[in-house]
Structures
1.
Amino acid sequence: MLKAFLVCMCLGLTILYSYLVLDIFGPDMAQISKKLEKELSDLDEISLSPMEKTEEQIRAIRELCGELCDTTKPIVPGEFMGTVTSKVDCHTLFSSPVFHQPALLPPQAWPQLSKKIQDQYTYQGRVEVREWFFNDAAAGGGMDSPYTFTEDMVQHYIDRWLAGDPDDWYHIYNSSGMIGAAADYQNVAGKTLLVIGSQTPWLEAVLLSKKAKKVVTLEYGYFISEYPGHTFMRPDEFRERFLNGTLDTFDGIYSYSSLEHSGIGRYGDTMNPWGDIMAVAEAWCVSTKDAHLVIGVPAMVNWGNGTGKDIHEWNAHTVYGPVKYPFLVTNWKFVYPTRESERNNPDGQGQYDQPLVHAGEYGNRLGVEWQPVFVFVKNNVGLWG
């Protein structure tokens, strides 16, 4: 009798587990991926324009991405920033060719995009669009030979940071100081860290100076570091190592002035309205359960009056406000800084309502654009991929 009871109980648990898995992950994602891959491959036999084929690429990405790329999900209000949660199939995110299609269009100005594509980027009309166009396709990931940072070169960045004169491109924002404060908040000593998008190791220098055990920089460009404990990795190798189980699991993810360019085509990359969300989701997949996410992007979450604004300054970058920032950091929860003066936009709303004033190649953004560093912890609710 007892044996029969145990067998029945085990069978019941197995069936329950199967229903839970189906409820969480839905149908076989590998089959869906193969179906979409074939549909995209068949486009070569159809007389469509590059814009129409790009629309089909985006449709396939949205279908396979599922809940993660559903920007109609509710944003749960928070004390400073709301939160968004989603199921994530990490294996599909890293392995499916649907997410890694070649670009079919050169960088596009906003009026050149079809309305179908524009609608995906505006989050149901909640994201404002201002035109500020760049064609930086030549500066993308097409480096054939590596640029090597010698040990002495990286040490230079460390020494400058320690001397109070950091050698970084973003000193007008006190970027090194904010990264240093975030690293202290996490206490990075002895930790393994991932840096997303960095072509000069100023950020890595801050982390290495604070005795991080290992720093890996994920970067499209072809770079080599000879500094002990620091290495560069390109996206193809990063995905391959995740899939074969040889990639590190990271205690912290750091990124400054990189994610705001994801998926908008400025650098010749494939158009993907959810490219930034998916990049952060990949970081979620490769991090420990107690990991910290540290991000610096142009932000307008709160002007100090409880309101902010989301803007695509197309195709220069994205400015993240009360809608796009929570979606960017899906499955992460804001924890730092706690002082309003360090997280609310310092110039209030007024300057953001002024027309964009250009001054030279990169435009005059001083006093208007703000790139604060925010820290998040993992939101480990439910079962994830």
2.
Amino acid sequence: MARNVSCIQELPVEVIQKIFTYLDIQSLENVGQVSQEFKEIIDSSIQIWRHLIKSYCHSQSLLKRNLNYTSYVQSKTCAKSLRKFYQDLVNVQKNFETGKCKKTIIDCQEASLKGRKVEKNPEWSRNHNFKGVYDMTLNEGRICASVYDTIQVWNTKESRLSYMFTNKILDQDNTQTICFTLEKNYLMCGTDNGYLKIIEIGTEKIISKARVNSNCLSDVKCRDDLIITLDWYGNLTFWKLDANLQLYQIQLKNAESYSVPFILRQRDTERLMDANHDHLITTYKSHITVYSFGQEAGLVVSFPVYSDVFCIHLNEDLVAFGCKGSPRHEDAPFIHPVAGIANLKFRPPRVNYIRTPDNDPVISIHLTSSHVILGDINGELHVISIEELKWNEVERITDLVLHLLASEPHLLLYTLKSHAYRDFIWALKFDGFRLFSGDETGKIIVHDFLNVEDIKSIEESDNSDKDKEVDFTAVDDKEVGDENQSKKPKLDQEPELDNIEATNE
């Protein structure tokens, strides 16, 4: 053994480092005990720790995709920092499942940039049934959020405001922006008279716009290089940008099969849309319509759920949705669930419905491969494990109150009360490390599961002090840099839910 070690030690340090990159963390710790020289090589090698970090993230697409938008970037040139980052990284999943996180606040409503700020119009609530952070997208480490009549782009790594688009910029062509998404350096906006317009975020200029009719656009999404718009009548249109960055309409294979079912063609309410490589999902009131991009291209199925859908999120073959539901009353013959997850592998889709403890309407949602996160109208975030869900029935209802009393594994991991009581949580995004939740007060609360030193988990916290939780650190104007759903405000009485429409996550 000593002879073998001696032979290895005679190799150049670069070769030894390369050999050590093939070892896992436990093997590295064992090797470090063999000799002081090996320990020093491991402790000082940037190559070894970068390889460990990337190997850990390789099998977890969400972490891999967002790794460069964390403190990893600052740690790249220091082995000691990389080792600390790796130790924090392997604890992210445990921290997330126990609610152990560091919380900070991005105050979008009070932010300013280049003299621009959110104008607080006292007439706003009279003309709109939403306020604050109304919708939000996450793209390449940037949060793009609508805040009253502005759209703001924040650098998530530094909580720094990069761009602010006022209504004068958004509506510079006299068309009102209704929906949006951010893709690379372009803000893609759907308008009230059917236009899809592309705004270059650096110059703030419209570089292209086009339409097929004057129907108001309800949602816009990007799927690779494909841009999809959905109008208020449920019609889908597919677009691409040519080499000169000009929009042109394209016809997919079996284009006629992407038509909206006749019974769902009324213009009555805002519609939602989400898309991935295989599926395209739209909503209309309490109906969810599924289209396919695969061999069965076109309309697959449209199915009803118990109440109006307010938010959706698609992840592989699962689509999660939040809805109106019904309140818990002792004399209620049936309590409508406020959320559900449909498995699109089955025909018809099999659905697991969820009732939360208070069963407040769910207006924002985010789905991962193992969890679903629900944001409701009472300022609560419910983190639910879906790994134990069964798909052996066409329909199944899980009541989290009854489930907590049962001896089986708990689905509801915890409830975060980061937002004030009765503040509507309109938007949710999760990048594998951080949960971003935007509410009607114009704030985005960042729950960081990576950098959590000296922060207690939910289970360790004092239950009598839940409402206080952790002191928030606000991002004020000094920290703001120069860089890049129809909803309803909080009510003084028990909220009337008939007028709450939808928000697409």
3.
Amino acid sequence: HTDYTGFTILWQDGAPGGLEVPPPTLWFPPTMPKMLTNNNKKVYCTQVKLPCGEWVPAPPPIPSAFTVNSGDLLEVWTNRKWLSNTHRVANPPTPDTDRLSLVFFTGPNADTIVECLPGCSDSSNPPKFPPISAGEHLKAKLAGSRVSKRSSA
């Protein structure tokens, strides 16, 4: 799935399972460094689905650090300069593994009109998405989700 609205802020313990990522060459633009480091440790984003369909696990979370994903509405606002990545949560490898993750979802008020921000489009790169209210976007995403289908059954 992708995150539906703004930023998703995630804290996870170091237990097995959790989020996965693609190789950095798939999520950094060519002009960006191929790898970020923190105290000489490799830093990747969360579990993401590769174009070939493979899910790639991320290294364990950095202690005292948060993972921040950009959601669908940031992709609209930035005209895909910031992408909303497809990701998932992997279960721990054994049922007796305890795991703790805390997540905080952010987003605009439901009546906020989300459209390409000034400076994110020009004549050679027009807006890729029509304007939409944050509430209508969320309603459409929920209507297409498994949660919506389960609750209506």
